[in-house]
Amino acid sequence: MATTTSNPEASVAADAVGEDGVRRRDFIEIAAVSAAGIGGLIMVYPLVSQMAPSADVLAESTTELDIGSIETGQAIKAVFRKQPVFIRRLTPEEIAAADAVSTDSLRDPQTLAERTQEGHEDVLVVMGVCTHLGCVPLGAAEGEDKGEFGGYFCPCHGSHYDTAARIRKGPAPTNLAVPEYTITDTTLVIG
Ligand code: FES
């Protein structure tokens, strides 16, 4: 005659609880899931790595724009190496405001002339990436908040940039970066 046991010790032994409290059955399930995850990664990575542009291709890419139609006081947003870049044609008032600031008072001392090109001091080209934690500041599009100093404003943590895109207030440590670029007639080539 068949017999059944209701011995609680036998049931505990079947679950084999270890000193760390993990049952053997739990361990087997976790190991199986982990193996599936690693297999998935191995299959996905070659696809992603084949689709992504190589580092040297990315580093050599340039952005070319006709800036002839950007009116005084207007800014546009473009993309350079997958990051936003702002191009602004400064008004005489914005240039005067930037030039009126003593560089001694600046966290990242630079003149407007040092941030623009000779003969094109009214064209300000900067990366649209806040130097605090990388948010995209406001101020390039019509009607956007330009902050307390009339340039760009990063609302993430309150960084204010002036008309030369220099940091004036808030946590950002440095000015908005100026990329390498050339201007020939009305053609701007960044990179
Ligand atoms: S990311 Fe711009 S202020 Fe923090």
TrEMBL record:
<dbReference type="GO" id="GO:0005886">
    <property type="term" value="C:plasma membrane"/>
</dbReference>
<keyword id="KW-0479">Metal-binding</keyword>
<feature type="domain" description="Rieske">
    <location>
        <begin position="92"/>
        <end position="190"/>
    </location>
</feature>
<dbReference type="InterPro" id="IPR036922">
    <property type="entry name" value="Rieske_2Fe-2S_sf"/>
</dbReference>
<dbReference type="GO" id="GO:0046872">
    <property type="term" value="F:metal ion binding"/>
</dbReference>
<dbReference type="GO" id="GO:0051537">
    <property type="term" value="F:2 iron, 2 sulfur cluster binding"/>
</dbReference>
<keyword id="KW-0249">Electron transport</keyword>
<protein>
    <recommendedName>
        <fullName>Ubiquinol-cytochrome c reductase iron-sulfur subunit</fullName>
        <ecNumber>7.1.1.8</ecNumber>
    </recommendedName>
</protein>
<dbReference type="Pfam" id="PF00355">
    <property type="entry name" value="Rieske"/>
</dbReference>
<comment type="function">
    <text>Component of the ubiquinol-cytochrome c reductase complex (complex III or cytochrome b-c1 complex), which is a respiratory chain that generates an electrochemical potential coupled to ATP synthesis.</text>
</comment>
<keyword id="KW-0812">Transmembrane</keyword>
<dbReference type="InterPro" id="IPR017941">
    <property type="entry name" value="Rieske_2Fe-2S"/>
</dbReference>
<keyword id="KW-1278">Translocase</keyword>
<keyword id="KW-1003">Cell membrane</keyword>
<dbReference type="GO" id="GO:0008121">
    <property type="term" value="F:quinol-cytochrome-c reductase activity"/>
</dbReference>
<dbReference type="InterPro" id="IPR014349">
    <property type="entry name" value="Rieske_Fe-S_prot"/>
</dbReference>
<keyword id="KW-0411">Iron-sulfur</keyword>
<dbReference type="Pfam" id="PF10399">
    <property type="entry name" value="UCR_Fe-S_N"/>
</dbReference>
<dbReference type="InterPro" id="IPR019470">
    <property type="entry name" value="Ubiq_cytC_Rdtase_Fe-S_su_TAT"/>
</dbReference>
<comment type="similarity">
    <text>Belongs to the Rieske iron-sulfur protein family.</text>
</comment>
<keyword id="KW-0813">Transport</keyword>
<keyword id="KW-1133">Transmembrane helix</keyword>
<comment type="subunit">
    <text>The main subunits of complex b-c1 are: cytochrome b, cytochrome c1 and the Rieske protein.</text>
</comment>
<dbReference type="InterPro" id="IPR006317">
    <property type="entry name" value="Ubiquinol_cyt_c_Rdtase_Fe-S-su"/>
</dbReference>
<keyword id="KW-0001">2Fe-2S</keyword>
<keyword id="KW-0472">Membrane</keyword>
<feature type="transmembrane region" description="Helical">
    <location>
        <begin position="27"/>
        <end position="48"/>
    </location>
</feature>
<keyword id="KW-0408">Iron</keyword>
<dbReference type="InterPro" id="IPR005805">
    <property type="entry name" value="Rieske_Fe-S_prot_C"/>
</dbReference>
<keyword id="KW-1015">Disulfide bond</keyword>
